[in-house]
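Re: that chain you flagged

S.,

Sorry for the slow reply, it's been a week of failed gels. I finally had a moment to sit down with the sequence you sent. For the record, here it is as I used it:
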Amino acid sequence: MFLLGVVAALPGTRADTAGDGPIVPLTVCEIVNDLPMYDGQPVAALGRYSFREKGRWLGEQSCAEPPRADPTLWLLEDIKDGPHPPNNFALDAPATERKLTEIRKRTTLAKFRFGTPDYDRWAVVYGRIEIRKGDAAKLAPADLAFRGDGVVIFLNN
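Prediction finished late last night. Pasting the structure tokens below so you have them in one place:
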């Protein structure tokens, strides 16, 4: 696996932001299985980045253990209030590759007859988890508010 662009240290959890070493991202399944713990916290989320007419989201088709909520995080670009990534930007590449290998056993990228393969890609996105309420929670259990495309790291297949 190769990381595209700048390899960035993205905190997986609030506790990770204090560390100096590379960050191990959290899978979407890990986040939704303990959603209240991550609510309002910055995370580095790993999953299938999907881009469609209705929006963008990070997700998994299924989880190793039954998920407590749909394994989907709706991507909400917030250039004003989205969390700033830490100054030292480095992912733990072996851990990221190991987690991506597990995700790929349960989740596939969509294949489109027309268009570009960019509609589904593997990615790590740094942002803040915001639990959804009411009807919005039917689409996804939480938003991942991110500062802009500079905190989206696409991974090679």
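What I noticed first: The chain has one domain: 14-111+119-155.

Talk soon,
D.
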